[in-house]
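Consider the tokenized backbone below.
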């Protein structure tokens, strides 16, 4: 390879006037809400939910629960593989900014939150089904997610990322319906009650957990006060000490809102998760939000977008991507911890 991969990063405000960019994955939560006859009402109600949840969690010195509001920007990272100006939209995520109306200040919120990736669609909607069709009893290929993980880590190490952000992202997703979660005695003042997945380690568990592990991210599960179920927080450093309370609250309020809309059977139930918790999309005792969301279309589009990625990115650049991935050093959370211990010694 004669030229390194380069990234360009852009942003667009997620507000009631938001129009998805042409390169945005249509399965993305925020893009799905911004379509159809109810688009503007959807967006307005979603932002109201985010603000109300933020103020409920940031309740100190906030007697009327209206001190803060949250701005959300969609961050897009486009990758130029050949150095010729032709880019592919690799990753999309969210950045929050907190408005303190009492102090009339703007405060950096969390970078990360949601996570959108065409290559992830390709892996889960093209590679994985093809593998299981030929090997129904076998686990995913050993190299499943390797390229995606290295692209993500390369982005975080890029000049483009460091020019805009001074912290590692935290990605907040739903817990897995294939796993059981056990409440622990650990209680965080903002994140709430910690759960452990199947009594196992922090880094191994569901297929999504292992996929994110290859991105260099560990996972912990917390159920904030007033939540119906734990959320999965994926992070690269120290979740509890690297971020302020307001940053953590911005992630919770934003992503819990999307999960209430997208997965009400888990996050908008009428009873909170028990000490031993098995998430299920078949649960019936839940409430619907007043926001229109097309889940069936979302699942269908994932396959379409996975094939698009195969045709527009994987196949045209296959030789370059394979050579690059072979030589790019990957650093998993476990390796980071080992390196830290060596330095301490």
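A designed sequence for it:
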């Amino acid at each position: 390879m004669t030229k390194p991969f380069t990234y360009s990063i852009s942003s667009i405000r997620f507000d009631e006037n938001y129009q998805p960019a042409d390169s945005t994955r249509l399965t993305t939560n925020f893009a799905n809400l911004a379509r159809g006859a109810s688009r503007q009402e959807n967006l307005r109600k979603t932002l109201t939910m985010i603000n109300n949840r933020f103020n409920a969690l940031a309740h100190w010195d906030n007697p009327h629960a209206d001190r803060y509001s949250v701005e959300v920007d969609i961050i897009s990272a486009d990758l130029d593989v050949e150095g010729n100006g032709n880019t592919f939209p690799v990753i999309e995520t969210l950045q929050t900014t907190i408005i303190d109306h009492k102090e009339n200040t703007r405060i950096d919120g969390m970078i990360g939150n949601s996570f959108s990736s065409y290559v992830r669609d390709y892996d889960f909607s093209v590679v994985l089904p093809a593998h299981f069709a030929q090997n129904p009893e076998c686990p995913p290929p050993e190299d499943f997610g390797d390229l995606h993980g290295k692209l993500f880590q390369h982005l975080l190490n890029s000049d483009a990322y460091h020019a805009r952000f001074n912290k590692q992202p935290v990605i907040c997703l739903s817990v897995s319906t294939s796993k059981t979660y056990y409440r622990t005695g650990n209680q965080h003042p903002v994140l709430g009650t910690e759960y452990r997945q199947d009594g196992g380690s922090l880094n191994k568990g569901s297929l999504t957990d292992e996929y994110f592990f290859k991105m260099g991210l560990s996972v912990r599960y917390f159920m904030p006060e007033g939540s119906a179920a734990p959320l999965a927080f994926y992070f690269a450093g120290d979740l509890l000490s690297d971020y302020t309370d307001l940053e953590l609250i911005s992630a919770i309020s934003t992503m819990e809102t999307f999960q209430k809309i997208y997965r009400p059977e888990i996050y908008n139930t009428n009873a909170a998760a028990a000490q031993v918790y098995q998430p299920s999309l078949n649960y019936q005792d839940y409430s619907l939000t007043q926001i229109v969301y097309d889940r069936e279309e979302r699942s269908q589009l994932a396959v379409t977008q996975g094939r698009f990625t195969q045709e527009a990115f994987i196949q045209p650049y296959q030789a370059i991507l394979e050579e690059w991935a072979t030589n790019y050093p990957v650093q998993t959370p476990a390796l980071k911890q080992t390196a830290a211990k060596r330095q301490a010694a």
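Strands lie at 6-14, 68-80, 87-100, 105-117, 170-174, 181-188, 192-197, 218-223, 231-235, 276-277.
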